[in-house]
Amino acid sequence: MNAIYLDHAATTPIHPAVVERMTEILTSHYGNPSSIHSYGRKARQLLDQSRRVCADSIGANEKEIIFTSGGTEADNLAILGTAFANKEKGRHIITTKIEHHATLHTAQYLERNGYEVTYLDVTENGTIDLEELKRNLSDQTILVSIMMVNNETGVIQPMKQIGEILSNHGAYFHTDAVQGYGLLEIDVNELQVDLLSVSSHKINGPKGLGFLYAREDVAIQSLQFGGEQERKRRAGTENVAGIVGFETAIQLADSERAEKINLYQKFRAIFIDTLKEHHIDFTVNGDKAERVPNIINLSFPNMNVEKLLTNFDLSGVAASSGSACTAGSVEPSHVLTAMYEADHPCTTNSIRFSFGLANNEENVKEAAERVAAIIQRLSK
Ligand SMILES: Cc1ncc(COP(=O)(O)O)c(C=O)c1O
């Protein structure tokens, strides 16, 4: 039985054009961008060009882009880097209960080290309450970190309104844009964000690569010691081939954005309609309107997430619960727990399906047929 990949929110297949470009760089341009000879200068040129593309993609300038090893490092650098550099101004940070662990665990580390962190609740729709954000801001708040798109539900937070609220406050605004970047048009000035994290492998680029946008006037402390790369904000020789591959992925995402949005909306409709045709009992988790089209999170009443995922996998369908799997058992989702309540059935019977490059109308339909057959069998 052919396998069907519906887990693009976990990672995406690398685009063939990215592989081609990376292979060219790996084989022909291996210089160190910090070297002053011709090999180094060529690598520097490539790096500068990629940095420009990254900056242009979010309306920033090149000096504001710091290449990292991915979204996790970008989140760590944004949160720890600003917390350490601004500790004299205050030690209070605001984030949400539904962040990726790259943010949550970093915030928890700060709590263990003398900072105070407020974790905002979300409604059943998966969005924060702006009034709760306002209420929690104080003169001690140095950073507000709120993700753009949730990786489990695909729900988009009200970025613009958050930026407006914070424009009258001294706290920096960081957003983890890992799941929004590529599909949503992002302008850091319009959104009034000071720091923004991006990951390459979510947009058909190579793994182990990302960038942090940090507005020029943001005080940030480097977390690594070594050379003076990335304007002394991130030591270590840059992954030039990976970065150039990432640049290609960004250009493709930019040029194909509208087409992809349409396509993923179609995939989503095919998937949901097929389940309905088979009279499958399910509900959609998260806001119906404010969402990216490539992620759907469905709750199947009276089902169990481990059983579902095992059966989907046996039938060749790769999906995810979106939350961590420890010692063979899937923990209740912290995102769905925040949206509903602890022990709510949705936290243990929900599956995330996410579409992308590995899909077409036929395999999405086929995957939904297999999912429907499994649910029907398990319901008996
Ligand atoms: C919202 C979000 N933030 C951060 C990350 C981490 O990114 P990376 O895998 O590049 O470290 C992910 C990856 O799943 C994510 O979905």
Automatic annotation (TrEMBL):
EC number, UniProt record: 2.8.1.7
Catalyses which reaction(s): (sulfur carrier)-H + L-cysteine = (sulfur carrier)-SH + L-alanine
Matches recorded under PROSITE patterns: AA_TRANSFER_CLASS_5
Domain named Aminotransferase class V: residues: 4-365
Names of required cofactors: pyridoxal 5'-phosphate
Source domain of life: Bacteria
Record's protein name: cysteine desulfurase
Organism: Gracilibacillus halotolerans
